[in-house]
From TrEMBL:
InterPro entries assigned: Adenylosuccin_syn_GTP-bd, Adenylosuccin_syn_Lys_AS, Adenylosuccinate_synth_dom1, Adenylosuccinate_synth_dom2, Adenylosuccinate_synth_dom3, Adenylosuccinate_synthetase, P-loop_NTPase
Cofactor(s) essential for the protein: Mg(2+)
Protein name: Adenylosuccinate synthetase
Cofactor binding summary note: Binds 1 Mg(2+) ion per subunit.
Amino acid sequence: MPALVLLGAQWGDEGKGKATDLLGGSVDYVVRYQGGNNAGHTVVVGDQKYALHLLPSGILSPGCTPVIGNGVVVDPSVLLSELSGLDERGVDTSKLLISGNAHLITPYHTTLDKVSERFLGKRKIGTTGRGIGPAYADKINRVGIRVQDLFDESILRQKVEAALDNKNQVLAKLYNRRAIAADQVVEELLGYADPLSGYVADTTLLLNNAIDQGQVVLFEGGQGTLLDVDHGTYPFVTSSNPTAGGACTGTGVGPTKINRVIGILKAYTTRVGAGPFPTELLDEDGEKLRTIGGERGVTTGRDRRCGWFDAVIARYATRVNGLTDFFLTKLDVLTGWERIPVCVAYEIDGKRVEELPYSQTDFHHAKPIYETLPGWSEDITQAKTFDELPKNAQKYVQALEEMSGAPISAIGVGPGRDETIQINSFL
Ligand code: GDP
Ligand code: IMO
Ligand code: MG
């Protein structure tokens, strides 16, 4: 089983960090393929809690080589501070590899992200303000700065000047902001060349060779399927492809080499930022899910919007990612509810709809049709096998599996590595 993708099946924060870390001990490489430090992946190892943003969660497993692929956008200042934070805690970060083709997030991207959001006012997307969208926009516009540019001062200067020519006009004339001096940006970026030089590698060659030699490579997605710029709830999305195809373009590994695609699926639903969310709860149940589930953003500290499980979304994630398995997380959070509603379809303009509508207007109007399942009150955090779960918890999992279109191969019953029920092996 040489290559597998692990990705978010909903709107992010499904527990990808925990799932990746769990597998990290058995894989040779963990590779981030898209996104940047908009991600917030919490990993709990024993009594230690780690919040990772840019680094692959495999960095916490000593035998594993963490890789930042070409599809990621790298804020070098965040990268270095994340590395030094881990070094201080005794985590070996020396194996990290970074693609020279990955694009950089520069100070002007972060500034543009924040001012453009402010400018949108009520129509804002609610981005993380980390410069993600503007950095990807420059990549597509072919005016981006790549990691490899850090090592050629003359090219770096030319590219920064070219990018700022246009951006300073926008900043000054549209947003009424001070222009950004190219010299200052170049100087800052050049300062990252030395500390990063030891990490830069031809990661595409290396990963393909590793797979050919039978080594195990895990591709770790950031964000989630519904935040995908092509397949998500556009425009309320991130600017990259968290869906399975992104693992190929974001690393240079072809789809024929990927054997398994695991969707991380929360036992209920959350979302951060603006955009449609059919099962959102604005009542006491929503507040209860937020409190018990600890649903507060790891990156921005914002409260996450919470709602019941949505099987329409899960089915959609199975379809657009070609999922082979689900890892169902946070089942323990649902302990204590007498009855648990699950959205099985939508009502749109009086009609029952089973699949995610492609029209954004329809999705905005979608009303959840619920089936209510019986809850359980027993503590499940110590359960190690499926049989140890209370009968109603078993039924809840089975019902979700039937509705979602792929087998549930693992169940999270707590944040720790060992608080997991493994049903089918992923490797
Ligand atoms: P990610 O962005 O997908 O990695 O998810 P986050 O780390 O942003 O959010 C998931 C949160 O749930 C983290 O605080 C995890 O420690 C926690 N978590 C993950 N799996 C479980 C689980 O099965 N049960 C509980 N109670 N917490 C979990
Ligand atoms: P992880 O990897 C949840 C959301 C933002 C916003 C939208 C666009 O922890 O699951 P961006 O800064 O990417 O341009 O913001 O996407 N968003 C996330 N929501 N989890 C994440 O990452 C997210 N990364 C971005 O809140 O709505
Ligand atoms: Mg997160």
